[in-house]
Amino acid sequence: MATRKQPAKLVLQAKTVLAPNGRIVIPAAIREELGFKPGETLVMDVHEGQLRVDSFEARLARIQGEIRQLVGPERSLVDELIADRREEVRREEEKDLANDIEMGRKPALKGSFAG
Q: Which residues pair with 110 in a beta bridge?
């Protein structure tokens, strides 16, 4: 049985020149394809000898997606961080109270995170 070949994906290419001050112009067709808008923040990195350029929003969304896959949708890293911070504050307050008692000082009233 013969199989049909999928059409080759078209690659958008352009040529640009590096200016003496290090600037490059991203050609309009490529900006449009990538959805880059004037004034938008772009992030760049070099990966295996190639320059990669993403919008900040696209890079952030990609990283958030990767993290979501690693930790799973049922786990909240924010809630874990808040719980860790509350526990740290509780330990600090206990330590301060013990120091006050040891030094014979009247313990100071301190507010704690509700939790």
A: none
- Which residues are 55's β-sheet partners? 42
Longest distance between any two alpha carbons in the chain, whole Å: 91
Residue recorded with tokens 């330590």: 95
Q: What is the pTM of this model?
A: 0.53
> What does the DSSP 8-state code read for residue 79?
H
The answer to whether 12 and 29 have CB atoms below 8 angstroms apart is yes
| Cα–Cα distance for residue pair 65/54, rounded to 1 Å | 15
Render pLDDT for 16-74 as a digit per residue (tens, 0 to 9): 999 999 999 999 999 999 999 999 999 999 999 999 999 999 999 999 999 889 988 88
Q: Is-contact 25 16, C-beta < 8 A?
A: yes
DSSP 30-77: HHHHHT--TT--EEEEEETTEEEEEEHHHHHHHHHHHHHHHH-TT--H
Residues 96 and 88: beta-carbon distance below 8 Å: no
